[in-house]
Please model this.
Amino acid sequence: MTTIHTLVLVLHVIVGVMIVGLVLVQRGKGAETGAAFGSGASATVFGAKGSANFLSRSTAVLATVFFATSLSLAYLGGQRPVARSLIEQTGAAPAATPAPAEGAAPATTGSAPGEGVQQGAGSQTGSPAPAGGDGG
Model:
């Protein structure tokens, strides 16, 4: 998160808590003003009209600020950098298959049985050497 994103988020939380507090302090339609602030003392604190006008205007201003910070957070949250793959982040190319070592005979495969199989050095006839040793 960037610094501006963090500041807007902190302001958003503070404004949200203040809205909750103002809504809880406001009186309902059927409630008396004296129940919230004492017997008629609210007229001297908030003016001649009492607390209703001050609290409702404050709530409206805070709601506007809350709406603006919500839009700002949505805009800032949408501007994240595109996630790259791990290969792109390291800058390394994928490893290629290793080449065969010099002097190594290539592996041959044949379609018929026995084809492509190298014969033993002592055998000249093409038949497999006996398993028991020198044939004697």
In short: The chain has a mean pLDDT of 73. Residues 66 and 76 are 15 Å apart (CA to CA).
